[in-house]
Specification:
Strand order of the largest sheet: 6-2-1-7-17-16
Largest sheet: 6 strands, mixed
Number of helices: 12
Shape: globular
Amino acid sequence: MEELIVIGGGLAGTEAAWQAAKRGVKVVLYEMRPAKLTEAHKTGMLGELVCSNSLRSAELLSAPGLLKKELQMAGSLIMEAAESCSIAAGGALAVDRKLFSQFLTDAAASHQNITVVREEVCEIPGTYAIIATGPLTSAKMAEALGRLIGADHLYFYDAIAPIVDADTIDYGKVYFASRYGKGGKDYINCPMTRDEYSAFFDALSEADKVNVKDFENEKVFEGCMPVEVMALRGRDTLRFGPMKPVGLPDPKTEKEPYAVVQLRAENREGSAYNMVGFQTRLRWPEQKRVFRMIPGLGRAEFFRFGSVHRNTFINSPLFLDKDLSFKAGENTFLAGQITGVEGYIESTAMGLVAGINAARRILGRGAVEAPVTTAHGSLVHHVTSPSSNFQPSNINFGLMPPVERVRSKDLRRKRIVERALEDWKVYCERVRQ
């Protein structure tokens, strides 16, 4: 039996390797870190989370919640790690990022069918392979991909949010709560008055930014937009976005503040907090100056400043079949964010599908197409269906076929979820054969 080469030890690559290995296929998983780091990674551990530590909503009637449920049903390693390393985050599934990455690293290293090799791969193998190099694909691998598909690769920028030292927060000026009372009081809320918000907005808008060539003309993913770019859309844009105070009454006044900055725990110890929705490309001294204007953060120290990083993906509908293999190279598969999905769990889902299909091909079994009525299938459909202006996408109910029209939004979602889980159960049974 031929072995499977998986290039990239992020969420997608680790999931793909796991899915193939547990089906009896020998897998060699290549990861260039720690010998060669990317612009955003800090460690050599598998599945390192470089942006938020949240895998988004855990509610089943949300699209992210549905996708996570499907991953669980399919035996996802990433979801097993997330559940094992979870921390309180209201209605979201958030993880202790160090424990999470260590879990994945240990799991891969201990599986009898997985060999982890720490070196960069610069060419596409001439054998069964899954490319899961992610949004920070190395220049040499990007060039190899360009040669394979016969077109220049596409890219856009996104940004990561700062992380604050919990010991430097002024707890007399903040309060713990979760929006609408969902979950425990898992978020630190920094309330702002109208005047405080106005001063903060002006400082943010005028702050010095990292020079990125033609940045404003580049594609910026809506779900990861730098906070200062969002502010350009209008003075109140932030109050309807990451600083929305709705559902977060201040216990001191029993009223909703004019604006709120939320901080989410980065680890179980609560020693570090992520500034929710504050991805940024401000220069580091400016981040310290401007973000210290936020009530409670006047003396904040930052474990990590925000930064901009490149995000590589291909025009997948032109080049990928429904099993996520390349039309130009039938034994080479693509997985993860580089396919044109956006987000941790979406990348994981593409890794799961690619790993299953690559293993089935090696084992001489036919590919099983994920139903478009499922969260996984709708993502595959998005990245493989013709599009005149293909853009990355998170999972959302808009990608899935509608159900019969009913007035209640909640009822429509309930029926979409029920249909998806029924069809996904059948899919899981088929791919076990």
